[in-house]
Design a protein that fits this description.
About 40% of the residues lie in helices and about 15% in strands. By secondary structure, it is of the alpha/beta class. The protein has a single domain, classed as Alpha-Beta Barrel (TIM Barrel), CATH 3.20.20.70. Strand 5, helix 3 and strand 6 form a beta-alpha-beta unit.
Length: about 280
């Protein structure tokens, strides 16, 4: 199994209903210290769909101002409006991002033809590398390998895809697209995906755990780390997302007893996981 990359789909930390710049600094320091390959601000784990345009833009700016070393900054720019997404992409480039993550719009039942038009409108007008993002569980619509392949052929700035369908057959079809970097977005499938030839993973548990990092890098602990990831995610999945990710980051990375760390309408966890979860991190 070849060594690959791990990118953290970063949470968006809040304190007193405002983005917590000190917690962002803690996240970027954690990424640098542990040699993560990238930090993806504006991610689904970051609760981006619940942010206003202003807060989304603030999150991107706060992260890139604090990312240092060999950690690559990535900007998630996706809004459900084409105009807002395009504008956010231009803002991200102005802030200094050179790599952008873009998911298909949600709620409406878009055809493949419309998705090609949607992505094309953005890809052709923003000077950055792009990673497209397939997560039908969130958008309600698959971004098919055939659509991504067409975009990859047409636009030279389409460099890769984050594949979060949870289907390894679909993952394999993305891997067959020549020259495309393919990242696994499901933590529990990372070990199998790396054996298939994945570029790496963009995995939410990386916000508070080094297990996916060990898997992607092909360490001697990779198989044991995969077992821990499956057990850990079975616990995490019983909680509200992204609340649980923020709680675990605050407690085990920042080292505080988490209080008032979520933006409305979310609230702090009523019944946090037991201390034994630390053995799985």
């Amino acid at each position: 199994m070849n060594a690959g990359k791990i990118i953290i789909p970063a949470l968006t930390p809040f304190r007193n209903q405002q983005i917590d710049a000190e917690a962002v600094k803690a996240m970027t320091a954690y990424a640098k210290k542990n040699f993560f390959d990238g930090l993806f601000a504006g991610s689904s784990t970051g609760g981006v769909a619940a942010l206003s345009y202003k807060k989304h833009k603030e999150a991107l700016k706060t992260y890139i101002e604090n990312i240092h070393g060999n950690v690559t900054p990535l900007a998630g720019i996706s809004r459900n409006s084409l105009d807002e997404t395009t504008s956010m992409g231009k803002d991200a480039v102005d802030f200094g991002y050179k790599t952008i993550v873009l998911i298909n719009p949600y709620y409406h039942n878009y055809s493949d033809k419309t998705l090609l038009s949607y992505f094309g409108s953005i890809l052709g007008g923003i000077d950055a590398d792009f990673y497209l993002y397939n997560n039908p569980g969130l958008t309600g619509r698959d971004l098919k390998p055939e659509v991504v392949s067409k975009l990859h052929e047409t636009y030279s700035n389409v460099k890769g895809v984050k594949e979060s369908s949870g289907n390894l057959d679909t993952f394999g079809r993305f891997l067959s697209i020549e020259g495309l970097e393919v990242y696994q977005g499901k933590d529990t499938l990372l070990f199998d995906s790396m054996k298939m030839g994945a570029t790496g993973g963009i995995c939410s548990s990386a916000n508070f755990s080094l297990n996916t990092l060990k898997i992607a890098k092909g360490t001697r602990e990779a198989e044991e780390s995969s077992r821990k990831v499956k057990e850990l995610m079975s616990i995490v999945s019983t909680y509200e997302n992204p609340v649980i990710h923020n709680y675990l980051f605050r407690k085990y990375i920042v080292g505080e007893e988490p209080v008032d760390y979520m933006k409305r309408p979310y609230s702090d966890l009523d019944m946090p996981p037991k201390q034994e979860i630390q053995t799985l991190l």
